[in-house]
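For reproducibility, we list the full input for the 6-O-phosphono-beta-D-fructofuranose complex.
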Amino acid sequence: MVKNSKKHSLRLAIATCGGDCPGLNAAISALVRQAANQGYETFGIKDGMNGFFEGSETLLPLTLETVHGIQNIGGTILGTSNKGNPFRDEKGKKQALAQVQKTWRKLGIDGMIAIGGDGSHYMMKELVQVGINIVGIPKTIDNDLGGSEISIGWSTAVDTATAAAMALKTSAEAHSRTMILEVMGRDSGHIALSAGIAAEADCILLPEIEFDMTKVIKHFQKKVSGGRTAYLVVVAEGAVPSGMDKMFKTSVSGALVLGGIGQHIASTLHEQTGVDARTTVLGHIQRGGSPNASDKILASRFATYALDLVTANDFGQIVGVKNGKLYHFPYSKLKAARYKIPLNSDLIHTAESIGICLGR
Ligand code: F6P
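The corresponding predicted structure, in tokenized form, follows.
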């Protein structure tokens, strides 16, 4: 809990940065409603930090009317962007920092609340270092931001992935098929592990545990010989088969994006056992749609804590969850390492204890 200092009027900017996720609008709504209670003015920055970096200098006034009812809607009313890093090289960084400082002064902003994932918060860290007043809020369906056990968007993504896995399971059973569900998460398996357990998958493959395909095949064969005809694998997009590298595909715009591991598993299972295996890549469905109750509540808690930090004039901090409790840590402590599932996690133990194969 942050101690409130004396109230004074403030002009606050709010930005949603990086890939979208369910719960961004709920966070914006809670921030604006609490700020209104405090007598602060709130403004939205369009499309992530692009408004500041490109110097378009447009702020969208955010009022109680603007945010009415948005907490239930997916996406973000402010827009966002996860492309283009102005800090890529020293020259770009110098220009971007100068542009933000100029725009900041011109607009007379006292502080900004940045809702973002790891890439966005590393950019914010640079801005904090040049004296921009920022409080950060974690959001990412991947749940991989270092410093917080949970981020906005992850819980809804798990619900979505669980529903997809359960649907695949009934179809697999009807057709005596093997189904592979490839889910997002980059180098962290938080979505895959939770959704896989919730949907009673037979096998869950995670970036945290290099998997041995011969172990997966053995597990599959044991199930089949025990009378099971359907088999469900939930695999994280960043999972790595032993002796191989992470799998990527090229997007239509030429970007290298994670993907292909689901199809690789289906082909290998078919080649080795003759089984009919089908792959579903869940993709951006996991990022869209309405937030669930947990994400709306987390968004409101983070927003309240962040606004309390603002009121206490305690900028340069990121809000997070540690040992199940809200806390904050300085941007200077933001670690480059992404949050992965600890190998001694009780969820990993749970999965293996209930007979789910993790490929080892
Ligand atoms: O970080 C969230 C995430 O959804 C990852 O899980 C995924 O790999 C990536 O973003 C995809 O991003 P985009 O398709 O927007 O480039």
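The first strand starts at residue 11 and ends at 16. The chain has a mean pLDDT of 94. Both points were considered when choosing residues for closer inspection.
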